[in-house]
Amino acid sequence: MPHSTHRKTIMRLSDYLPIEHITMLKASTKAAALSEIAHLLVESDPKLDFDTLIDAIHQRENMLSTGIGQGMAIPHVRLNGVKRAAMAVGVVRDGLSDYDSLDKEPVYVVIMIIAPEGHHDTYIRLLAQVAEILKEDELREAVINAKTPEDAHNVLCTDSS
Amino acid sequence: MIATVSAEVDPTRLPALVVIGMAIFFGTIFARLFQLIRIPQVVGYIFIGLLVGQSGLNLMDLQTVNDLQPFSFFALGIIGFLIGGELHRDVFRKHGPRLISMLFGEGLGAFVFVFVLVGAIAFITTNSIAESVAYAVVLGAIASATAPAATVNVLWESKAAGPLTTTVFAIVALDDALALVLYSIATSCAAILLGTETSALSTTIGRVAWELLGGIALGIGIGVILNFVMRKTGEHENTLALTIGAVALVTGSAHLLGIDMILASMTLGCVIANLAPRRSKRAFETVERFTAPIFALFFVTVGAQLNIGGMPGWMWALAVSYLAGRSIGKLAGARAGAKFSGASQSVTRYLGLCLLSQAGVAVGLSITAGHRFSGDFGTAIISIIALTTFVVQIVGPPCVKLAIHRAGEAGLNVTEDDLMREHTVNDMVDRGAPEFSRGTSLNQILRTIAQTQATAYPVTDTTGGLAGVITLEGLKESFGSEGLTHWLVAYDLMEPAPDVVHENMPLCDAVTRMRDQQIEFLPVLAKDGSDLIGMLELRTVTRRLSEEVMRRKQLADASS
Questions:
Q1: Nearest CA in chain A to B481
Q2: Which residues of chain A have a CB within 8 Å of the CB of B493?
Q3: Rounded to 5, what percent of chain A is helix, strand, coil?
Q4: I need a surface site. Which of A24, B1, B56, B273 has the fewest CB within 10 A?
């Protein structure tokens, strides 16, 4: 049996995604959804400025939408004021039709990732790991259909821990 | 308990350490200033020597110069050792017969022309055939000597390589021996003519043989021992101490035994270079790095001991005729010798120009003559050589520089470090390096990376300024995740640039920054702003410099 020489380090998403960072979104637009999720991150890091974060998120969205298709969006940014890498998740029951995702379909799950400016490796690995999880049809459906933050947390964090 | 050390201090003279420090410090500053106006650094050293020596402020009087004599001997030893290192057996095999012809041409040319001109002027001023022939023969013999130090210093400074350079190295190394032979015979003749000779001719021949053969034997003996010890220890850190020790041992022993110290140390260098070419390369490189302050001190003391004031008119006349005869003799003799031997055109044309300097050997011989012949004759020999040394030490080094440049041999013996000092970042920046805007997709980035060789790519903002860099190292995490390639952009993948340089920065400074920070690249900005103009990659710089060194080496080899 061939032996793989490259072993990827698996990160524990639960280290970056506490259950308080997951919400069932009330917003119906992309801007409102991003703002609501950004608030979750700012609340747990008082030194993080909301306006700076949301400006950076929008600046990044203007370059290319982070709606990656199949109902998923992963807005992400690196910022100087961020203390440590963190994630926040919003689940939208009715979907965000204005997200301008790659497949032009509504977005149901928004996973926001932030990291300090110098933490390039952590940032990319978080993005890669989230993308890997969402590639699995079963897991993706489970997150979209999550009824509570606990349901979403179980799906996203159990698999990687 | 703290011991108090007191020393007798002569209030009229500066302490030796102050003089040494002053000579090296100010000598180096003046040398650098002279270099800036394209005059060889040797002239700068000698100039400061003149300023502080007998001809100037007399801060460095003859007694001080004598106190520093061991340093001067050591400097001559180092110079001889480095010249010997240039004399590989290939040089003798390839150029041996030619060298003999050119050596006799330039040496005897100077002797003959000085003999005739000085003899004529001396006869007019002294009205004595015996005395005028004595002047002619002694000054003629001294005229054959060439200052190896000042000459090769310019060759090293010019990073010269090629047939002319090789020939000059060999000639200045060997004409010391020729000058000694001629001088020994000449002083014996002069002594007979002036009626002061007491020793037989056989004694003179024996003394010359002892000086020359003793020098060669001493150099070979210590050289073989040094080679053996270096082979046994094989440690890099011992190389400098062993080599310097061997040079000092050879020079000091030669002085003690009354044999030619330059010839001895040159033989030492020659033996080491030929017994262990590869290992000795390290020894020569190590010693070369150590030489700058020694040379500074040596040449400053050369300048300091020149006393050109208070000479009567007839001595000036003899000095002028000596200078004219020596210059014409060197130029014509070298040309004739080179032509006769079938040397290349550049050697035939420019060898004479490289052999005008005179210093240590000539001054040393004149002082010996001064000791041997009391009265006006001895004083005149010392004064004439001092005055003419002053002139040719100022004129000689620029002539060497001119000749080397005319022959196209300057800058052919360079290392990567030398080239780095010559270039700015602008010369090596890759202006066509691919760059990404912040919104470039990972897919596009990966396609570009697949088609190019760079290890880092700049990312620019909307105004063309540098926003960050994407490195292969930083990308490796995203390579394994197929899902990322569609929706990540350069902005997500870029990292802050570790450092930036401007295009007009010296290349050596930029490379030092990369090495210090252990980075392989640097974004390059326009000299007058923040616009990105390209990337500087360490491996590209190293490769291009190596290629240039090889090209110049091949050019020098091809013309040999």
A1: A128
A2: 124
A3: 45, 20, 35
A4: B1
CB contact under 8 A, A124 and B487: no
Write out the residues of chain B at the interface with chain A, using a CB-CB cutoff of 8 A: 438-439, 441, 474, 477-478, 480-481, 483-484, 486-489, 491-493, 495-496
DSSP per-residue letters across B208-267: HHHHHHHHHHHHHHHHHHHHHHHHHH--HHHHHHHHHHHHHHHHHHHHHHT--HHHHHHH
Structure tokens at A137: 């049809």
| Sign of the C-alpha dihedral computed for residues B23, B26, B32 and B33 taken in this order | negative
Domains belonging to chain A, first-starting first, are 13-160 (3.40.930.10)
Question: For residue A102, which residues of chain B lie inside 8 Å, CB to CB?
Answer: 486-487
What is B342-371 written as a DSSP string? Answer: T--HHHHHHTGGGG----HHHHHHHHHHHH
Report which secondary-structure segment, H or E, holds A69. Answer: strand A67-69
Read off the tokens for A57: 């998120």
Contacts of A99 in chain B (CB under 8 A): none
B195 DSSP assignment = T
Q: What is the β-pairing status of strands B532-537 and B521-525?
A: antiparallel
Partner residue opposite B487 with nearest CB, options A66, A120, A135: A66
Contact: A117, B496; criterion CB under 8 Å? yes
- Angle, in degrees to the nearest 10, between helices B236-257 and B261-275: 150
Separation CA B465–CA A55 (nearest Å) = 20
Residues B299, B72: Cα–Cα separation, whole Å: 9
Cα separation of the two ends of chain A: 27
What is d(CA A39, CA A54) in angstroms, rounded to the nearest whole number? Answer: 9
Q: pTM score, two decimals?
A: 0.56
Is B487 close to A68, i.e. CB distance below 8 A? yes
Cβ-contact B390, B50 below 8 angstroms: yes
The DSSP secondary structure of B280-319, one letter per residue, reads HHHHHHHHHHH-HHHHHHHHHHHHHT---SS--HHHHHHH
Q: What is the DSSP letter of A20?
A: G
Among the listed residues B363, B365, B325, B385, the one whose alpha carbon sits nearest the alpha carbon of residue B184: B365
- The DSSP output letter for A100 is -
A147: which residues sit within 8 A by CB, 6+ positions away?
A24
From the CA atom positions of chain B, what is the Rg in Å? 29
Domains of chain B: 19-413 (1.20.1530.20), 421-559 (3.10.580.10)
pLDDT tens, per residue, chain B with 560 residues: 344 444 455 656 677 788 888 888 888 888 888 777 766 677 778 788 888 887 788 787 777 777 888 888 888 788 778 877 877 777 677 667 778 889 999 999 999 999 999 999 999 988 888 889 889 999 999 999 887 777 888 888 888 888 899 889 888 877 777 887 787 778 777 877 777 655 666 776 777 778 778 888 999 999 999 888 888 876 666 778 888 899 999 999 998 998 877 778 888 988 988 888 777 777 787 787 777 888 788 878 877 876 666 678 888 899 999 999 999 999 999 999 999 988 888 899 999 999 998 876 787 677 667 666 777 787 788 778 878 887 888 888 899 999 999 988 888 877 788 888 888 999 888 888 888 988 898 888 888 887 887 888 899 888 878 888 888 877 776 665 666 777 888 988 888 888 899 988 999 899 999 988 888 899 998 887 778 888 998 888 888 888 888 888 777 766 65
Amino acid at B488: L
- Are B382 and B305 within 8 A, CB to CB? no
Q: Which residues pair with A88 in a beta bridge?
A: A112
